[in-house]
Structures are given as structure tokens and as C-alpha cells.
Amino acid sequence: MGTYKDILGAYEPKREYLVGAMQDIQERDGYISPQAISEAAEYFSISKSDIYSVVSFYAQFKFRKPGRHVIKVCKGTACHVRGSGSLLSALEERLKIKEGETTPDGAISLERVACLGACALAPAIVVDDKVHARLTLPELEKILKELK
Amino acid sequence: MSAFKLTIDGQVVEAEPGMTVLQAAQRAGIFIPSLCDHKELSPYGACRLCVVEIDKVRGTPTSCTTPAAEGMVVRTNTEQLQTQRRRTLELMMSGHPSPCFSCDSRADCEVERKTPTRSGVATRCGTCSNRPLCGLRGIAMGNFEREMDLPISYDLSKIETNDPFIDKNHNLCVLCGRCFRVCQKIHNKPAINIVNRGKRAKIAVEFEKQWSAEECKFCGACIDECPTGCLTDRWGKWFGAPDSEDKETVCPLCKKHCRLKLKIKDGKVVGTKALSLSSDDVLCAVGKFVFPQILNSAGRLTIGRIMSERGEQIPAHGEALADRLFELLEENRGKSLIVGTSGSYYETRKALRAMEKVFGAKLVELPSDAAQDSLPSDVLADVEAGKYDFIFCVGNYLSAPLLKKAKKIAVADFAKSEVQELADLLFPMAVLAENAGTLAACDGSKIAAEAAVANVGDRRPLSGYLADVLKKAGLNSNLRDFDFELEALPAGFKSPTLDRADLPKMYLGHYLSDFAPDLLLLGFPKSPEAERRAAAKAESGFEILEKRVLAPNFHELKVAAPDMAKHAKPGQFAIIMANADSERSPFTLADWNAEEGWVKFVIEELGRSSAEIGALKAGDKLAVVSGPLGTPLDLNRFKAGSSVLLAGGCYGIGAIYPLARELKARGVKVVCAIEASSAYMLYNREALAGVSDELAVLTRDGSAGKKGGCAGFIRDRGADFDAIIAIGCVFMMGQCAKALPEREGQIKLCALNPIMVDGTGMCGACRVSVGGQTLFACVDGPFFELDKVDFKELSARRNAYKLIEIEAMPRHIGGRCHS
């Protein structure tokens, strides 16, 4: 990971730029590390707890390193009605992790999202930014096999 | 701009520019409920209790954030506002353990238990140290009369005891934000803040780590401003509302000599407080938490002693002590060493200088936080060479081998130490706020430290004692010839309020961690004496095989005790002591296995002894587990086919289990009724269901099973049973006794285990009146006739020990007791 100097340095050290800088860090690393918070606290001259308070408010920020692949299961109304619950349980069972967790080998993270905005394609999941529509359990098996 | 007028609730009120509507109302004596507002903090508008209606203003603004203006028309208490406040309170209460509010027996319970029960963690108002001071409770009592519609969202995971000094119970937090705003105001960059969002929001440091792992200085200001019991002073919280908070003194524990305010209750210093919420007045962890713990320490010295010719230390008082020191100095003229400290009051230091002169002694002054035996090298060499026949040491600065080089030894100290058994003269000193004196301000000018509390036993200010000795030598009390310049704060001085690393570790040769063991969590050194005690404890005792937390404050311990397991019978108890110097407390045997050689106890944390046990973990040892004691339940009284009701509350839920198991095995129809304040306090349900024909669950707030308690169950169905046995707290059993049905031949029992000492009928501490007869719970009990026990007397006897119990409350460390 190394340094956050480049990312932070692109902003003026004013509190109003905090969220933007943290978004950039998340964009690069995929998560916000304790080191990132320490360095940002020093750069913006605010306390670490202040930064954590802001960042932990938004569900978008992650505090654990995500897996190499990220599977997002939609739990919006349409997907829910069309059985995304069983997709999620199947994934949890297969990967032996709960939603929000990453497999111990760091390969796959499993997330639940509120709505992908692809209700016509329900049930839908997103694997590494690729949307898989009208998904069935056999298809899910295939996707998992390809990831491994 | 000048003062202007506005109308609040039809009353014309005057306000100054810059005032909020809330302040204008407060000035006019109009009450608007509020929790987050604080006179030293900027408006925040978090709790939303101070909402008002203002003409021509949309909605219901919070009065704490709305500036008052000329001609405003404000209403503070309309029906709509009341409804809104009630809804807000209800939302707070769904996350705040509130079974006491909806309990039908609250009024009776609070008459019987005038102060809250000293449990490990607050699970309701009745076990919350903050009850006498609670801002939320005050408001809720007036507004909160109806049943809760919202589901409860408090749980065990929100209780944290892993930091020094501060207990955190996030269940009680209402997110008013006072704590982190105080932190920000004092320290500029706050160590704590509100993290997360919605239901998961709480006060924390980043990544919700321990506060001690982060920038928190443990100045304790957040605790003082918390309106609920969320943040509490682990040691001082049970003393209740102080009688006064205004007396000031100066803290001598480091060179900075901060002024501070004292919280005084019943003539004791139960806490300290900064003069204001500003960075100039902030206290360090030692000034805030250790100062009062030193004053109240069980390790204090109270009795003076003089060594007799036969080599025994005999208690001595007043003038005899002064006479003896005079004699010793006189006899050893020119051969005496006096070890004092620059941390003493000016008056004391002056008197020691006078002694040096008058008796031709050598005076050495050590810094107040100097380690043992850190004498200047030339003096050290002289002592080792036996040049001094007499050493007078103030504090614990010299070790035994060094003291023994002198023929005679006198010690003046505020706390006990191992070397004191060598002393020919022992003088118990007043310390800190117990005595007045003069200290140096930063620039070396003189500042006065006032005395605020009276002295106990033979304790006296050292300066007064020394003045008596000098008077015998013919010196008058003003000692003007010995005036000297006080030292200014050295240039490189590092303030402990800025960095925890600079906190003083020692005072007068004593380790501060001996007085406040929580300091060990901040990496403070442990005294050699404390090390030896810990090592001795690890060597012998009864091993805890397993330990589980069943519900908040309820611990299940499985203890290796093969002999007891062989002889245990239902209803018997054992006496447990966590440490060799603990109180002996009786606990009912909750289960046992003779083949595997273990016994089980369910222990409810509600005072020092149970807290000490609760702080242990699997693998630790209990110093004493003696039993089985008491008369077992006569199982032959219960015939097969008959029916029995076992009513259990609190620890009784665990205690009725072996009774149910044995009775069921004999073919008795067993019905168990268990009560708890709230769903999250219930435990043992599955185990009890397995050994009973019916299990009735009752909660005081109706959050699980039926709303109510065992007494209600007995009133409804008690007549159906051939026998009723109630086990629980005195209040619960008393209620059950009142609810008993009139039924000829019914067996009615309760199990009592009041305070005991020996558990064998000798001391009489556990006496109870049953049907006009005096019986001893330890040998005649624990089972007594439920309808004949005098519960009023029993409860009065229990309450008699309250103050002693509060004073004895242990100091935890990371949830582990080290006192």
C-alpha cells in the first residue's frame, strides 16, 4: 500500500475535501485502512475519530480489504420476490462466509446491495462489475467455477 | 443591541441578544426538557426533546438551536409537542434498558431499594449507578406512562469494560453528543466521536478500538457530562449524587500542581472535577481517577505505632508519637538522616529544614515520584556504611535492607508498606485533600491547597506533627528562619494532561497502581508486593473449569471440587472467596457431577464479592470454595404424583434447576416459573424446560413470555400446587409470600442466603426471623417457610450494610478485578 501522500496531496488540507480524498483512497485500495485514517488525520489536522466518524457514516466505505473478486447480490424488491434470497444463501453456503465477509484466501467478497436498478432483469447479481441477469442456481455454480 | 421581549407560553419574557429560545425560557423559569444542551457547549440539537412551536415558523424547531428574537410567540407544551416528545423518548427507550418504567412493582421496589443495586453493568434503572443523577429518567418519569410499542434493541454486546477507569454501556447512550463535544472543546481534536449510523451508531474511537489504544487522555470530563449511565467512573459511580462539588484544592501528585474541584459525599472525596471545561483546567488521569482512590484506599494507614522494648509495635496516638520522634532525634543528635520530599507542602519542608538544623541531622529531599532507594550516591554510600544510627523517612522511599543499616527507624506515611513492620515509630499521615498547605505554582509563587475532608483514626497533617516535635525542641511555630524559595516548574516539564506517557507513576515511594490497579492497563509498573500476591494466588485454590456469561451480570462457573460434588444435595450452598482476603459469600449449588468432580454456581454480580468472582475467567482459581453447607431440601416431603411450583428470579433461575431435576426424577409434576426484568436477562430456559413439565416465562416489561412476575403467577395458579418453592432476591420472595393462596397442607418454602461469615452457625450474621423464632440461614436453612419469614426485617438487615458495601466496591481492570 505504502503511502497516501499522492492522493491526499491532490487536495487542499481543508476539512471539506475529506470525503473526496477518502473516496479516492477507497477507489485505489478498495478499502480504508487504519494507516489511511492516520495519514489523513495528520494531513487535514483533524482527529482520527473525527475522520472515522465521517467515513463510517457512509455504507459505501469499507474497512476491510476486499477479495480479488466481488459478488454483489441484489436484495431489492423485484430481486427479492424472484428469489435472490436463495441465491445469497447458496453463495454463503458455497463460499462458507456470510454476506459482508471475504473468503480466508482473499479470493471472493460477498456483498448484499439494496437495488441495482435492474429490476427487469431480476434476480440479478454483479460479479466484478459484470451484471448477471435472471440468474438460476445452476448458472450461479458456473460463475463460481469460472472465478476459482 | 439591547434586551428585547418575546412571549413564551403567554408570558412576556425578556431576553439578551445571542440567547436561544431555550435559554430565554430557562431564565424566565419556564421548563423545557432537554438532554444534549450544555451551558458550556455550543448548541447541538441532537436529543430533540426541547422542541417548541413558534408563530410563523414552520414545524417544531429545537429551542436550543433557535435564536430568540424580538416579538416571537413561543409555545412549549402543547398537546402536539407532548406527543412528539413522548415518541422521541420512546425511540430512545427502545434502545435504552427500560424495564423499570413499565414494571408494575417499580414503586414498591424503589421504596425497598432506595439506592440502585451495585451490579456489574446497568441492565435497568434499578441496577444503574446513574439513577440518582439521570437526566433521561427525570424527563421520562414525567412523560412515559404508556407501554412500549417498539421492539427492544439493547443487548450484551454494547457493554464495554475493557478500558481503564471508564465503564461504557452503549445501551444507555442516547447519542446526545455531549461527551465528544466536551472532548473537542478541551482537547481540540476529540479522541472520541459518534461512529457508524442508525442503530449501530455509538460513541467510540476510530475502528471502535479500546480508548486506551488511542489518543484518549482519560481526563474523565466526558463522564462528568454524560446525562445517562453510559459513561461512568468505574470506581466512584456507586456513591450517588455528591453533597457538594464546589470545594477546591490543589493536586500534589506531580509538579504541575493543578487546581481541581472535589466531589464530596458523606465527608468523603468520591471524585474530582476540572474547574471548567477548558484546556487550561483539564485534569490528567491521575488527578481525575487516582486522587480519590488514594484517599479511599483500603491500603491507607490509620493507626500510629511505637515499638516497645520487647520488640512489639504497640498502637500509639497523638502526643506519644511526637514525644517518641523527639526522643529519637535527640538521642541520635548528629547521627540522623531525614528523607523528605520536594512534593510535600511548604510547611512540612520548612519543618524538616528546622529539624535538620536543630538536631544536627542530614536532610535529603527526593522528588515526589522518585523510585525506592534513589538517594544521592554520597548519601546512599553513607547509609550503607552505617553512618546513620537513626533514619526518619517520610513515605516509602527506602527499602528494608537500607533501613536496617540504621539502629532506629521512624516512618511517616499515608499508606501501608512492608518496611513499616521494622519501624520503631510509625506515624499515619493525612494526604491530599485531608490536609491544607502551600505548594508552588508554575512560576514558583505560593498557592494554597485547602483541606476538604476530616481525618480518620490517628491520621494528622505531617506539618502539624513536626511542629509539635519542634516545639519540644523550643522552636515556635512560625519557623521564619527557615523560609526558602519554592521551585518554579522546570523548563522541560512535560504535562501529563497532554501525554499519558508523562503521568506520574509513583508518589512518596508508593506505586500508584497499588491504589488504582486500572493504571496497569496504561502500562504502569506493578509494585513488587502486588507481583508477589498475584503469584501466590496462582499457586493454590479451586480451578474454574468453565465460565459463561448467561445474561448481563449473571455468570455460570464450573469449578473443580471433587469432594463437594460427591456429597452435594439439592438446595445446599457453598461459601466462595475469590481471593484470600475476600468476603465469604454463600452461593447456591446450581449443578454438580460426582463422577467428573465438578460443581456449578450461578453468580449474580451485585457487590464487591460477586464482582470479584465475576471478573475471573476459566483457568483462574478461587481461593476458597467450602461446602456443601446448609440443610438440603427434604425430597421425601414431595410424593410421586404430587405437583410442585418452582419460582425462580435472578440467580434463582439457576438455583431451581437441581431441585427441578431431582423432583422430576422422583415422579413429581414440576412446573417452573421464571421471572426477569427483560427478555435479555433470561437464561437457562432450555435446561429448565428439559427438567420440568411446564415452564412459564415472565418478564417485568413483557418483552418475553407474560408481563409480570412470579408473584402474579402464584396469585393466578398457586392454589393448584401441592408445594411452592420460591428462590430469588428478597424483594421477589417477599412478593411471592404475599401472593400465596390459602390452601391447607401446602408446602411453602423459600431459600435464603443472606450475608454470612463462617457458614457454620457461629457468627449469627445470617439470622432471620421465621414465625417469631430466630433462626440461622447457614445451618437451619437455606429453606424456610415462605409464609412465615419476616421479609421486612430481612430487607432492613441487608440495607444496613449499604454504605460499607459501596466503599468496598472493587476496582476492576479490563473486567477483571484486582483489588
Provide structural commentary:
The complex is a heterodimer of chains A (148) and B (819). Helix content of chain A is 45%, strand content 12%. Chain A is of the alpha+beta class and 148 residues long. Chain A folds into two domains: 5-57, no CATH class; 69-147, 3-Layer(aba) Sandwich (Glutaredoxin), CATH 3.40.30.10. In chain A, strand 3 and strand 4 (130-132) form a beta hairpin. In chain A, helix 3 (34-44) packs across helix 4. With 819 residues, chain B is of the alpha/beta class. Chain B folds into five domains: 4-119 and 132-143, Ubiquitin-like (UB roll) (Roll), CATH 3.10.20.740; 156-295, Alpha-Beta Plaits (2-Layer Sandwich); 304-482, Rossmann fold (3-Layer(aba) Sandwich), CATH 3.40.50.740; 533-607 and 621-627, Elongation Factor Tu (Ef-tu), domain 3; 635-805, 3-Layer(aba) Sandwich (Rossmann fold), CATH 3.40.50.80. Helices cover 24% and strands 23% of the residues of chain B. Chain B contains 22 helices and 41 strands. In chain B, helix 10 (346-358) packs parallel to helix 13 (462-472) and helix 19 (710-717) runs parallel beside helix 20. Residues 812-819 of chain B have low confidence and may be disordered. Chain A binds chain B through residues 34, 37, 41, 45-53, 56-59, 63, and chain B through 180, 189-197, 204-207, 214-215.
